[in-house]
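User: Teach me something about this protein's shape.
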Amino acid sequence: MKQANIQVGKVSDYLYALMTQHKVKKFRAGFIKKNGDYRTGRFDLLNRSTWKQNNGTMYQRKGKKRTTNADEYILAHDLDKKAPRNISVATLKWFSVGKKVYKINHLEVNDSITVVMFEKVKFTALKNLIKKGVINE
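Assistant: First, the predicted structure itself:
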């Protein structure tokens, strides 16, 4: 039997708190894309209005407001592909900030109640999470 701390609130608010409590501004994450593929990457939470794309051109945001729900998606900038990404909180499997790695387990009780567990894992497990998305114990 494991003992856990319980917090009531929005999962996205707790995620932002965990990601921004460190001095490091970048984080790694692993999640399931809409088409079912597993994806990992390096991200940051800076809200950019312009950025340089992979082909060398500058892209400027059009000034429209956000179209996704902030409680369901994390708006992050992909540092590898140099473009903004919406990461679904429901399909997020793990993330790491600095030397801390958190594995996320979701349990949906019904339509209005979802239990999300943030399990700290060893930093050495990061290599397996990036490749496969699972930890071999």
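Now, about its shape. The mean pLDDT is 81. The longest helix spans residues 11-20. If you'd like, I can walk through any region in more detail.
User: That's plenty for now, thanks!
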